[in-house]
Fold:
Amino acid sequence: MRYKLLVQKAVATQKNSYAPYSKLKVGAALLTTTGKIFTGCNIENSSYSLTICAERTAIFKAISEGHKKFKAIAVTSDKLDFIPPCGACRQVLMDLAGDIDVVLVDKKGNQKITKLSFLLPDSFNKSIFKP
Ligand code: THU
Structure:
């Protein structure tokens, strides 16, 4: 399995998920180009739209700690299926991390690796603001 440690960290973080409404526990682990790993889980809210996904928790933690260059993100859940990042997370990841590897892992440990540009082709991104 590729990205074994990254996947292990995502699975471990999934246990911290706060998902009393959807009951879907999601874990993410984001790898920097320097080899550091930032983890995140989904955190729901009784006012549903205030929920944050695991992927955005992870990247906001990394950015807030001063990290800017990323290589891959692993996403895991306690469901059998792969959980591909939602549209909002794809946009945030593309802006802040660029075209990283996205490592999807289902409950059984099956793995699918794709690129963010495959999940979000022709993206609106920050290049439009360059002079
Ligand atoms: N969720 C994530 O954490 N990541 C995704 O990419 C998809 C959805 C969470 C948000 C919410 O807590 C639950 O899954 C159901 O939508």
Observations:
- The mean pLDDT is 96.
